[in-house]
Structure formats: structure tokens, C-alpha cells
Amino acid sequence: MKTIINTSKAPAPIGPYNQAVLTGNTLYTSGQIALDPNTMELVLDDIETETRQVMENMKAVLEAADMTFENVIKTSIFISDMNNFGQINVIYGSYFDEATAPARETVQVARLPKSVNVEISMIAVK
Predict the structure, then answer these.
(1) 10-residue averages of pLDDT along the chain (126 residues)
(2) Which of 55, 70, 84, 120 is the one with CA 20 to 30 A from 44?
(3) What protein family does this chain belong to (predicted)?
(4) How far is CA 69 from the centre of its chain?
(5) Alpha helices for 1-126 (secondary structure H)
């Protein structure tokens, strides 16, 4: 059985998907980009601000499922330019305890939705 997770504190889905799906104790999130949930406008001032907005959106989705970043066991980071990795990694890392940080892959892709620079998805377990 699956439970659909959606919150107004994260950007509304803009297609045939939900922000996350909970099945059993496992949460699978959709990828988040730097959309401000209040305005649905992109926050692209700089790569640090963009990454922070992505992580805040993800935080809201996790909270809607009664979870935190401590519950995250796996992340996938998609970036449009590997030269931004260091700056993205600093912001991303500030949301986790390094000793218990999740498994992760980071890949450069040709293009992301709305031509953003970073998209992140997560798997979390209660």
C-alpha cells in the first residue's frame, strides 16, 4: 500500500507525479528543484542559494512525512555543471551529520527541468 505525500510548503507538482510516496516505512521523493513554493518562481541567484532552496523544499517534503534528514538513507544529485560540485556539496552537507550522512551519487546531466543547475531526490526510512 502506498501513501501519497504532498505539502504546500514545497513546490506543487507540475506534472503527473507527487512530491513523495510512502510505502511501508520507506519514503521515495521526487526530485526537487529551486522553485519557491509560495510563488512557483525559480530561485537562481547563485548556486548556493539555488541549492539551499532545493534542500529547503526537500526538508518540507520530509517533514510532511514526519521525517527529517536523519531518516535519509540515499540521495541522488543531478547537476548541469560538475564545476559547481564543490559549492553544492557545502550547502548539501550542512543539512546532514557527516558521521551519519546517507549514501549518494552525483552525476552531471545534459539538462534539467526548467534549465536549473541542480535537482535532488531522496529515499528515507522511518
Answers:
(1) 97 95 98 97 97 98 98 98 98 97 98 97 98
(2) 70
(3) Belongs to the RutC family.
(4) 11
(5) 47-64, 85-93
Sign of CA dihedral 67, 69, 75, 79: positive
Nearest to 95 by CA among 115, 117, 122: 122
E-only strand ranges, the chain: 2-5, 20-23, 26-29, 72-79, 103-108, 118-125
Question: Does the predicted TM-score (pTM) go above 0.85?
Answer: yes
Burial classification of residue 54, based on how many CB atoms lie within 10 Å of its CB (0-12 exposed, 13-18 middle, 19 or more buried): buried
Which single residue is written with the C-alpha cell 518540507?
60
Q: Which pLDDT score is estimated for 117?
A: 98
